[in-house]
């Protein structure tokens, strides 16, 4: 007996501090990633080993390796199971069960006996269960206690910290114990010899139940009908006469087991027994191995009970527990888990894990019979569970070993459908093609486990699927951008015609059927979840049936054209959905069909737009704010994007160029090295030359395009996000590369005079909401000055001071059409000769035409009236302040005012001084500074008093006498000036223009 136990220290990278708490996982991210990778790797390795076992291979060697072990199979292949390197990287600890039946550690004998000395009925003593690890991380072994006659746990002083896999060799097999991702150890059994095989329980816990009852036919059958039924049954089943009154009757009990390799055939020549962990062999007989598994086995929460499908490696054994006359009960596993022990003809013994629970259910109730529903087939076992309805045709409760008499009870029913019965097997010879179900009328007399009898007439429903050529069409759905009744919904509809019904009966059955549409969101692997993501049913009125317009509700099969559901965009996320549709009439399935629905968001470019006024060539032109953050220009990107109302306001932005730089692990000097999105989610770039000569090349960010991604949630669904990618460029609102937004009118200065260039320079905004509006480059300090203005009360006159004259000293002729306005009578006007002329005088002028005398108004008279309404205001001619409405009306009606306006520009005047007060006006806020410099300083020295031009744009030209005549061209000098405008973005715009100096 040389039974080995190898432990492997696989995982130990997550260190524990002296206080017993874990150190931050941040330091062990790689270890955690490796841990998950190792779990996946172990799963793959185990699957590969199990495949080899299924092909008849066995283990020839298991040897410890660093942090794990290597498994060598009979075909020569070796599979390693390793984990994250432990703290010391040692090989696994080796345990051995020696020939004397004691545990050995690394070759040293322990005091723990691993084999029971005395077996039962000459059988070998039981082997101890595999060691385990306790909550304190210490190894626990099982040793035989001769006094108690059972194995007991013994905690060793051997640490098992970090162990996540170990293997035990005993009873002809290797049992691998592998920790899963939850830390629980899973067992995998592998054969250790060529004639060995493996038996395993199908689940961690397998519950095997049988029924018992007290046999009391006289007590249970009190009615005449029940008594008659019991008599009929005893005549049919003569073995019932041997059951004594009040005897304990048992039935049922089937034990499933997995056997590998698949070619191993269990026979009655095998010995089967159940053994408890303490070594006790139970008085429960196991026999009659049958390949396959009963239809009603299933696994729930790791426990196996009745109802799952048959698999090739599954076998079923009949369970016959012994009856203890003294205790009046059958043997069970005594509320413990037992191991199944199997010995073949060669004497090879293999065991399962301790997984089986055998228990009894006491039946006290009488037998009952109910009708079920089954799916049509030419022959139907009425006692078998139907795969679709999940019911049998005849449903028994508390029956005894299937002892029942089943008959067809209605001759018309028999002839109509061609019915016949052979025991429980129903044959239907004439199933109508155009019906969804038929009724089969039966009489059933059944016997109960307690001796009760029942005689019932039941009607079994036989359902028939409608055979259709078509089914649901696949759908591509783009979530709606139109709001309906306050929500973004849309109908997803299918055409009834797609099912290609061939008869009105089929379509009517489909119309009347209850319909369920289950929608499953597939995961990234395309797998469907166990439960539907959404369910729509006609019963809940959220699966609707429509006429051909898809709006009006269908009223019958004849106008039934479409059906479907209303999809609310707030509930769905983009992805692939599996749709399972079923139409049922009670338990009968009329139609079942599946389809795929792909749900997509609307395209980002269709629902998001850059603000047109801020966009050029699909690039967002950003001005930003230069005053909020020192040395930065920041901008709220949401101000530049037009988003629909179903896009959430909580937007995140990513600098895609920076992200690409991170993924490429670029150099710090590259443009992508700096993230243009700040912690507040704003666009944030450096002002040009913010750090002077020390500004790095990739910190010059203005006028450079950048790729940005905005991520929005849609429809109020946090799980539904969409990316909108766009380009952005940050610019100054006052900068142009060529200075085209600055206008310089001709600047001319006189020799010996001061020249102010700023008065002839103007600018406009180049970008932004003020684009095209005036930009103030130069401020002024304000104050009062004397200004020469036209003195309308002092017109120029001739030498005699009679007539007012123009700039050529020529008197001003009064237009003939204006003579009456100046005061000429009508008679005088009509008497005018063709050559008669009159001129405007300073004072009123008496004139005679023929015999008619008239007085023409002089300029003084006109100005007397004009001065009532007009004056100079801060150097500008205009209305007097505070004119009333009446005064304005009188002004507008005044003949003198009209004559003033008509003739004032024809006269020459003296000037007078007016005080002009100007308000201080700073340069526009966007302007940081404006400087001037001569383009050619050497040349400028010849014509100006200083080669430095002040920030006020003024310079003084030299007197002509100080300038060499040979330096002048045509008596003048032309000098180029470079004006540099520095803005708050750090941009510098240069405008070059020419100044002319002459006499």
Q: What do these coordinates show?
A:
The protein is mostly beta strands. It is 11% helix and 40% strand. The chain has 13 helices and 68 strands. The strands form 21 sheets. It has a seven-stranded antiparallel sheet, covered by helices on one side. Strands 15, 16, 20, 21 and 27 form a five-stranded mixed sheet that branches. Strand 5 (94-97) and strand 6 form a beta hairpin. The longest helix is centred in the first third of the chain and has 26 residues, at 29-54.
List keywords for this structure.
elongated, 999 residues, disordered N terminus, 13 helices, single chain, seven-stranded antiparallel β-sheet
Structural class based on helices, strands and sheet pairing: mainly beta
Average pLDDT works out at 87
Q: What is the subunit arrangement here?
A: single chain
Enumerate the spans where pLDDT stays under 50 for 5 or more consecutive residues. 1-29, 84-90, 119-123, 306-310
Percent helix, as a range, is 10-25%
Tertiary shape: elongated
Radius of gyration from the alpha-carbon trace, in angstroms: 54 Å
The main β sheet shows up as: 7 strands, antiparallel
Q: Could you give the distance between the termini?
A: 128 Å
Estimate what percentage of residues fall within beta strands: 35-45%
Q: Tally of extended strands?
A: 68
Compute the number of helices: 13
Biggest sheet, strands in spatial order? 7-6-5-1-11-12-13
């Amino acid at each position: 007996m040389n039974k080995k136990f190898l432990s492997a220290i696989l995982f130990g990278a997550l260190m524990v501090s002296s206080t017993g708490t874990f150190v931050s996982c941040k330091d062990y991210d790689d270890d955690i990633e490796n841990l998950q990778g190792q779990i996946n790797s172990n799963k793959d390795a185990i699957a590969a080993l199990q495949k080899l076992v299924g092909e008849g291979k066995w283990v020839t060697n298991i040897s410890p390796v660093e942090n794990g072990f290597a498994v060598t199979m009979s075909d020569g292949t070796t599979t390693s199971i390793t984990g994250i390197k432990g703290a010391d990287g040692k090989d696994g600890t080796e345990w051995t069960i020696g020939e004397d039946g004691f545990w050995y550690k690394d070759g040293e004998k322990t005091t723990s006996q691993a084999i029971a000395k005395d077996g039962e009925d000459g059988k070998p003593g039981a082997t101890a269960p595999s060691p385990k690890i306790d909550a304190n991380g210490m190894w626990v072994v099982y040793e035989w206690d001769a006094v108690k006659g059972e194995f007991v746990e013994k905690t060793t002083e051997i640490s098992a910290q970090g162990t996540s896999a170990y293997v035990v060799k005993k009873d002809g097999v290797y049992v691998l114990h592998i920790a899963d991702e939850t830390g629980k150890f899973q067992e995998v059994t592998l054969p250790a010899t060529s004639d060995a095989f493996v038996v395993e329980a199908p689940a961690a816990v397998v519950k095997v139940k049988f029924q018992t009852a007290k046999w009391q036919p006289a007590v249970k059958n009190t009615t005449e009908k029940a008594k008659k039924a019991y008599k009929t049954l005893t005549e049919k089943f003569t073995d019932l006469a041997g059951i004594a009154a009040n005897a304990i009757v048992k039935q049922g009990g089937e034990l499933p087991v997995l056997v590998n390799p698949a070619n191993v055939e269990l026979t009655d020549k095998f010995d089967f027994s159940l053994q408890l962990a303490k070594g006790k062999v139970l008085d429960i007989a196991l026999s009659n191995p049958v390949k396959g598994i009963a239809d009603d086995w299933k696994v729930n929460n790791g426990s196996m009970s009745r109802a799952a499908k048959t698999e090739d490696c599954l076998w079923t054994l009949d369970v016959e527990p012994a009856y203890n006359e003294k205790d009046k009960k059958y043997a069970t596993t005594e509320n413990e888990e037992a191991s199944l022990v199997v010995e073949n003809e060669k004497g090879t013994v293999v065991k399962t894990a301790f997984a089986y629970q055998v228990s009894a259910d006491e039946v006290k109730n009488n037998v009952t019979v109910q009708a079920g529903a089954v799916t049509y087939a030419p022959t139907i076992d009425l006692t078998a569970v139907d795969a679709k309805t999940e019911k049998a045709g005849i449903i028994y409760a508390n029956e005894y070993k299937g002892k029942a008499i089943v008959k067809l009870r209605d001759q018309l029913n028999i002839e109509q459908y061609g019915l016949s019965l052979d025991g429980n097997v129903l044959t239907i010879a004439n199933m109508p093609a155009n019906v969804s179900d038929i009724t089969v009328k039966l009489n059933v007399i059944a016997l109960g486990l307690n001796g009760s009898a029942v005689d019932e007439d039941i009607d079994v429903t036989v359902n028939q699927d409608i055979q259709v050529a078509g089914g649901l069409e696949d759908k591509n759905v783009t979530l709606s951008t139109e709001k309906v009744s306050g929500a973004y919904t849309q109908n997803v509809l299918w055409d009834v015609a797609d099912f290609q019904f061939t008869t009105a009966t089929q379509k009517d059955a489909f119309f009347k059927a209850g319909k369920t549409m289950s929608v499953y969101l597939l995961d990234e692997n395309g797998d469907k979840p166990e439960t539907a993501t959404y369910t729509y049913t006609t019963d809940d009125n959220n699966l609707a049936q429509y006429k051909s317009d898809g709006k009006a509700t269908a009223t019958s099969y004849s106008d039934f054209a479409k059906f479907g559901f209303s999809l609310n965009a707030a509930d769905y996320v983009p992805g692939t959905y599996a749709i399972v549709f079923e139409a049922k009439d009670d338990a009968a399935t009329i139609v079942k069909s599946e389809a795929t629905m792909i749900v997509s968001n609307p395209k980002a470019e269709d629902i998001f737009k850059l603000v047109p006024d801020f966009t050029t060539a699909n690039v967002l032109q950003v001005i930003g704010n230069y005053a909020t953050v020192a040395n930065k220009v920041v901008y709220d990107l949401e101000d530049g994007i037009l988003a629909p109302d179903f896009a959430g306001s909580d937007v995140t932005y990513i600098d895609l160029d920076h992200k690409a730089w991170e993924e490429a692990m670029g150099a710090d000097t590259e443009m992508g090295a700096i993230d243009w999105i700040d912690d507040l989610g704003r666009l944030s770039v450096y002002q040009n030359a913010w750090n002077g000569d020390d500004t790095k090349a990739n910190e010059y960010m203005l006028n450079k395009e950048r790729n940005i991604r905005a991520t929005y949630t849609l429809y109020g669904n946090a799980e539904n996000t969409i990316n909108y990618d766009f380009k952005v460029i940050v610019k100054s609102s006052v900068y142009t590369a060529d200075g085209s937004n600055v206008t310089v009118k001709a600047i001319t200065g006189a020799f010996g005079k001061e020249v102010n260039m700023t008065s002839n320079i103007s600018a406009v905004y180049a970008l932004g909401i003020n684009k095209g509006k005036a930009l103030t480059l130069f401020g002024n300090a304000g104050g009062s000055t004397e200004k020469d203005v036209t003195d309308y009360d002092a017109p120029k006159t001739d030498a005699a001071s009679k007539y007012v004259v123009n700039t050529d000293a020529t008197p001003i002729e009064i237009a003939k059409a204006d003579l009456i306005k100046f005061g000429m009578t009508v008679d005088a006007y009509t008497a005018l000769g063709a050559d008669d002329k009159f001129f405007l005088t300073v004072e009123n002028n008496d004139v005679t035409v023929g015999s008619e005398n008239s007085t023409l108004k002089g300029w003084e008279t006109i100005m007397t009236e004009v001065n009532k309404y007009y004056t100079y205001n801060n150097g500008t001619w205009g209305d007097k302040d505070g004119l009333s409405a009446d005064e304005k009306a009188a002004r507008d009606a005044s003949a003198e005012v009209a004559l003033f306006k008509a003739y004032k520009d024809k006269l020459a005047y003296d000037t007078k001084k007016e005080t002009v007060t100007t308000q201080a006006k700073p340069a526009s806020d966007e302007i940081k500074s404006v400087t001037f410099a001569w383009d050619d300083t050497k040349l400028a020295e010849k014509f100006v008093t200083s080669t430095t031009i002040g920030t006020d744009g003024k310079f003084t030209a030299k007197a002509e006498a100080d300038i060499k005549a040979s330096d002048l061209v045509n008596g003048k000098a032309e000098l180029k000036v470079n004006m540099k405008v520095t803005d708050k973005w750090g941009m510098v715009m240069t405008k070059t223009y020419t100044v002319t100096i002459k006499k």
